[in-house]
Amino acid sequence: MYSGLLECEIREEQENAGMPDFFIDLNLNQIVRELQNNVDEYEIRKLYYRLPKNYETVCYRQEIYREIRGKHLEKPLGVFSSKMQETRKYKELHEKAENRQQYQMYWFNTVCEFTDGVDLLRETLAEAKPEAKGLTDLLGFVEEICGKKLWEECRKEKEKIKGMLSGLRFELSIDGTNLKVRSQQREQYYFDYLKKLFPKKFSDRVNEFGIPYDYLLPSPFATNEQLGYLESEIVRMYRKKRPDFFKELEKFYKKFDKIIDETIYRVEEEVQYYLAYSMFQNDMEARGCVFCEPKVQKDGSAFVAHEVYDLALARKNRFADLEVVSNSVQYREGEKFFVVTGPNQGGKTTFARSLGQLVYFALMGLTAPAESAVIPYFENLLTHFSVEESLESGRGKLKEELIRLEPMMQEVNGKRFVILNELFTTAATYDAFVMGQRVIRHFADQGCLGVYVTHIAELSKAGDDVASLVALADEKDHKKRTFRVARKDAEGVGYAGDIVDKHHLGYEELCKRLDEGGLTK
User: Fold this and answer.
1) Phi, psi of 417 (to 5 degrees)
2) How many CB atoms lie within 10 A of CB 448?
3) For FRET with 88, which of 32, 459, 476, 505 sits at 20 to 30 Å CA-CA?
């Protein structure tokens, strides 16, 4: 049985999947929204909501994505998808058609689009000679479909009916209030005449998948899905004059009424997972961003990333002349947690997000925002970012944070990548230190790797397996943030005064502005 392009996914679970908790914390919802827009004919969000269930699936997807891009399969796969869209469109029209001949003609169009699309998919894969298991399995599956005797018979009868259809021509004459329709063979027809009258309205332009754009002048008989009176009369006329054509159409419908294998629709949907991300990657690379295929280790513990950056921030800034700073980072032997301190608005949270995004895209079998990366295989991603207190629940911010932390800390033992951002900010400093230390120890003792962003410098000494990173301010001008993160002892300085000065929020300046507004009287 064909396992699909995403492998090992239980379809029912995938279809019912909700957005993971870490999506909003890591701004992945923004990226997936754009991926969805890239292929808006499909509902693919949920394909990104579930992490693969095992290491083998990560490798399976990486191989597929690597070959789709490396062998330039995006365009032919896009054409295949368009053929499947047309298949569904004609199938829907077929099911709605009231006229028997139209009903059969729509089925003929349905089968033509479907078989042409599958033949194209087979030819594309055969020419590419794929090595990725997912694509070789797909090639074997479509070759089995296309190799059936019924499929070959369908090809021949399609061409026969198309030839007969090309000979069906009629002449429409209007004389005052009289309208005459008769079959006629002429040297020039309506559409050819329009092309000569309006040459600029017709072109040989094609879209990004190589599909010709539709003519801008549609047929006047294509305004309604159901046959009108005039069209019905034309069909009635031809049923008398060319009964052979309608007999062939009837025979085709009866013979090939079950030729469509709906597993192909699943292939069509799953291929969008790769095409949408490839389009997004192309766009971001054109704007200077770099991507790599991370090396995911099944049993290794190395975690090294060179020039990793926040992809969601890069996406947001792509139309502005704003630099997105990247950082390089490595967990040394025995290290489990990074405690990141440094000045306010210095890039600590952005750095943590960039690592989370790196892990997410690596586990999804896609390229990641970095020059290179080696990471362990993680079973899940866990994040906890500071939130405002809930007005609806009436709970304070600290209680909200503890309630969110509880299910994370109850996760079964195993490899997780954990990102904790600015926890316990409403607690007293000592209490925040004690709670933060216990949280770090809980996850580290379970074998997790993680990042803890905080202003509490003492947490950088929460254990021998904890390393201190600092978001750096400019050495000459502390008001200037470099957004660089380096391995360094925590300074215990937040530079909050710099932010106050930058935005003119000092005591004397506030008093002056209040006085000028007449608010001190």
Assistant:
1) -105, 125
2) 22
3) 32
Q: Convert the pLDDT of each residue in 496-508 to its tens digit.
A: 565 566 556 677 7
Residue 204's pLDDT is 60
Helices 229-241 and 243-255 cross at an angle (nearest 10°) of 100
CA distances from residue 479 to 127, 197, 344, 474, 501 in whole angstroms, order as listed = 58, 68, 10, 7, 8
- Mean pLDDT taken over the chain: 86
Mean pLDDT in residue range 456-480: 88
The pTM of this model reads 0.86
Tell me whether strands 337-341 and 416-421 are parallel, antiparallel or unpaired: unpaired
141 CB neighbour count, 10 Å cutoff: 22
* Angle made by CA atoms 396, 400, 404, in degrees to the nearest 5: 175
Q: What is the pLDDT of residue 279?
A: 97
Contacts of 21 (CB under 8 A, 6+ apart): 383
For the chain, the structural domain boundaries read: 1-166+242-286, 169-225, 290-515
Q: Is 198 left (phi over 0), alpha (psi -120 to 50) or beta?
A: beta
Question: What's the distance, CA 206 to chain centroid?
Answer: 24
Q: What is the C-alpha separation between 123 and 118, in angstroms, rounded?
A: 9
Specify whether the CB–CB gap between 310 and 349 falls below 8 A: no
CATH topology of domain 290-515: Rossmann fold (3.40.50)
The three-point CA angle 185-189-194 to 5° equals 175
DSSP 8-state symbol, 492: -
The reported pLDDT for the residue numbered 178 is 77
| 389, two tokens | 């207190």
Please give the average per-residue pLDDT across 364-378, as a whole number.
98
Instruction: Say if residue 405's pLDDT is above 60.
Output: yes
Are the C-beta atoms of residues 184 and 242 closer than 8 Å to each other? no
Q: How confident is the model at residue 205 (pLDDT cuts 50, 70, 90)?
A: low
Residue 470 and residue 327: Cα distance in Å, rounded?
A: 12
Q: Is the pLDDT of residue 214 over 60?
A: no
Q: Which tokens sit at 434?
A: 């004690």
What beta strand segments (E) does 344-425 contain?
372-376, 380-385, 416-421
d(CA 13, CA 303): 30
The rounded distance, in Å, linking the Cα atoms of 485 and 467 is: 13
Q: Which pLDDT belongs to residue 389? A: 44
Q: Where are the beta strands (DSSP E) in 123-224?
A: 170-175, 178-183
CA distance 94 to 104: 7
Q: Supply the DSSP symbol for 203.
A: -
Closest by Cα among 155, 151, 129 to 140: 129
Measured distance CA(405)–CA(461) in Å, rounded: 22
For residue 196, which phi and psi values (nearest 5 degrees)? -75, -35
User: Rounded to whole angstroms, what are the CA distances from 128 to 71, 136, 144, 405?
Assistant: 7, 10, 18, 49
User: What does the alpha-carbon distance between residue 287 and residue 281 come to, in Å, rounded to a whole number?
Assistant: 10
